[in-house]
Design brief:
Keywords: Cell junction, Cell membrane, Membrane, Signal, Tight junction, Transmembrane, Transmembrane helix
CATH topology: Butyryl-CoA Dehydrogenase, subunit A, domain 3
Shape: elongated
GO cellular component, one term: plasma membrane
Largest sheet: 5 strands, antiparallel
Strand content: 5-15%
Helix content: 55-70%
Distance between the termini: 11 Å
Number of domains: 1
Membrane topology: Multi-pass membrane protein
Number of strands: 5
GO molecular function: structural molecule activity
Number of helices: 4
Radius of gyration: 20 Å
Protein name: Claudin
Structural class: alpha+beta
């Protein structure tokens, strides 16, 4: 039972960590949701802004000036939290691989292997909370920005919704949290 639980938690943690990495690296956190002519598809991300022409499929991306330049708080906070969550989830995966019962590393000391699985669960839990805070922070800021424009009767012709990168970040964080619960609460 313990080995099956460990392998299940490892599979979930691996998939969720990949989701977190994809969310951090991709550039579709905010999408143009009000292009009635459907001429272009605009995505804003943590690192750049991309526009895809719907007629010919040409995609052009504008990099943000510099990583050290002044950026909106939502971008800086989300970058920091997502990168930290990625690092913690990656470290937790490495620790979890060494702590699995099916790996022969430290086979003679099962107590240490159990502590490694528990430590991996704690790291996954911490990373998941940071990733979820980063993803939700960005989503709430997009919503507040849109609500402010609507409340002031400012219509720019364009409004943004959450992109698939934002949803990937939330799904990856949730998956890491579930894997953390499996490793910390259910393994004993």
């Amino acid at each position: 039972m313990s080995a099956a639980l460990q392998v299940t938690a490892f599979g979930l943690a691996l998939l969720s960590t990949l989701f977190l990495l994809l969310a951090t690296c991709t550039d579709c956190w905010m999408v143009n949701a009000d292009d009635s002519l459907e001429v272009s598809h605009k995505c804003r991300g943590l690192w750049r802004e991309c526009v895809t022409n719907m007629q010919d499929g040409v995609r052009t991306c504008d990099q943000y000036d510099s990583i050290l330049a002044d950026h909106p708080v939502k971008i800086v906070v989300t970058r920091t939290l997502m990168i930290t969550a990625d690092l913690l989830a990656g470290l937790a995966l490495a620790t979890l691989v060494l702590g699995l019962d099916c790996i022969t590393f430290l086979k003679e000391d099962p107590c240490v292997k159990l502590k490694m699985c528990y430590g991996a669960g704690v790291m996954l839990g911490t990373g998941s909370i940071l990733g979820l805070i980063g993803s939700v922070w960005y989503a709430v800021d997009v919503y507040v920005e849109r609500a402010m424009l609507v409340s002031h009767n400012i219509f720019l012709g364009v409004h943004y919704d959450f992109g698939w990168s934002c949803w990937l970040g939330m799904a990856g964080s949730t998956g890491c949290f579930v894997a953390s619960v499996l490793l910390t609460c259910c393994l004993y």
